[in-house]
Amino acid sequence: MCARACKASKDCQSSPFQSYVKDDFHSESIVLDNQCEKDKIQCEPQEGNVEYKYMLVNPSEERLHHLTTQLKWRVLEGSGEAIYAIGVEDDGTCKGISEQDLVSSLETLKEMSERAGCDMAMVRKQQGKEGWCAEVMVRQKPMDGHFIDMRIAVVGNVDSGKSTIVGVLTSGKLDNGRGLARSSVFRHRHELESGRTSSITQHIMGINASGDIVNYSSIHAKTSSEIVKESAKVVTFIDLAGHERYIKTTVYGMTGCVPDYTMVVVGANMGVQRMTKEHLGVALALKCPTYFVVTKVDMCPDNVLQGTVNELSKIVKAPGIRKMPLIVKSEKDVMTCAKSMASDARIAPIFLVSSVTGQSLELLRLFLNIIPAQKTKGLDVKAPAEFHIDDTFYVSGVGTVVAGTMLRGTLSTRSNLLLGPDNKGQFHPIQLKSIMNKSMPVNQVSAGQSATLAIKKVKRNQIRKGMVVVDAKLNPQACQRFTAEVMVLHHPTTIGINYQPVVHSLTVRQACKVVSLDRECIRTGDRALVTFEFLFRPEYLLVGARLIFREGRTKGIGRIMHLHYPDGTSVSVDDQENSSESMQ
Question: What residues does the Tr-type G domain cover (predicted)?
Fold first, then answer.
């Protein structure tokens, strides 16, 4: 019996499909959207996680082996998920096949999925030109602690309802309008008293292979480890502060936690505020796909809500963003947005929700279920391990624990590792006691996953945010100076030599001094090659990584082009690209 993923349309209730379609399948389609009414959709993409198959009836063993290999590749492209459109030709023509052939094709796809270690679920069945077309989601089964890990940064102005929407999504319980939902996600006592987030917190929502929310499947609240055990996909919400006072914490969370998507929360009653634009600007600078959630629609007059939506639409269509806003009102809109987010992200989805009445929350949950985790482009799981630390703890009975994200390679407790750089730029050998991923003990973690590492014989005060755990084969070096190609987003006057902003790049956050520019000075809107020098200690940076620099209301973005090491050597973007090509 195939797994459940969505609510079924009436078309799917006919008897030949009862083994594939349950009562709670979603009736709309990602691929077979309203364009299918014209009997044609876009051509099959060569890359990505979408595959068109006209018919899969009685293939030979050799053909079945080839199809299974192709399915594995599509699932890999979608970071553990793939969409199959049956009855659709490669040019996008929704030709359709008979019911008998469709049932046979689904049986073949089921066999392919089982061989590939995946579950499948029909999303939609629809009439084509000459017969039936169907869309099926294929999702990798969770095994040995491996699951689809998707991180979403939740940003927006203070009092816009960020923590409340996170609490509602992760608990399944509506808010009472007086802070009930947000109380479950706050980290500190003063946050409970003020109702405002001041730190970075992470909360998970598990989705099983059938598309059901694991958090809601029991009358008792489940622990993180229980949720992860039952989930094929884990959505991690990174709840960030909205107050201007905590902007450095918010920027650090967006750069250091490496989110797949950014959820910009806007209060319907207050509209788009300055901090909303600040957070959106950071997401755009990091090239992080973004969608919008307008909250408190239940308490907002229609004219005020319409004004907020119009202002938001104007911003996303402005030069520099140039996206198409789409107000999500139906499951069809959800699928259209999810398809865009999986490819070019040209559409900017806008959800109008209420955490008190539950309006449109099901559409938001469906969207989170469907969108794929971003591929770790250019990051090889076979490369030397590279783990960037974004937090440190001391756990009684365990010792020093660090939290962070794997950017490259695979790391295990048996790996030969180095920790650094210290205040002198040195790296020191370490051994790991254990590794945990979302509160689950695991043997290893790979590129793109977040984890916590228990380290032997190292005191917590010897570790700081911004340090890395790397494979000894990497022969890491820390740098005091680096050159970046930057663009000044805002500065009241001019920037010249000796200007001192705070630079953020991944988990690194430190004050720097401008030591040289390729021109006399730069102003708002200017681009330039700028050489920075860290003021306090050397750091481990990645050439090609994006950076954000700020000082007061001055803000700029850039990309690291050269790293200058103390021994006189340097590494540039061109050197790294040539090295990658030679390895391939």
Answer: 147-375
